[in-house]
Amino acid sequence: MSRCLRNLCAACVLTLVLSASPAQACPNCKLANETSKDLPRAYMYSILFMIGMPATIFTGFGISFYRLTRTAQRAAADSSAAENTSDIVDK
After folding, report:
1. Cα–Cα–Cα angle for 61, 65, 68, nearest 5°?
2. Separation of alpha carbons 74 and 79, rounded Å
3. Which of 14, 18, 86, 17 is nearest to 6 (CA)?
């Protein structure tokens, strides 16, 4: 079943890649970028900013979850060490 599903997914991706047409800008954007010297650079920076924001947000969440996990592991280790110490004292 998984082999059949994998082949079907590969066929779908291949079909999408082969049927894709090149992207074209709208006539107003194309005209504006051709007439101004600095506008294409600003347009490029805005696209890079939009591409970079999801990576920045996901990186922030990843670091936050890593720190939470590390803090929880330290707390668990400290509590188990405290339990071991109290077991030794009780005996």
Report:
1. 140
2. 9
3. 14
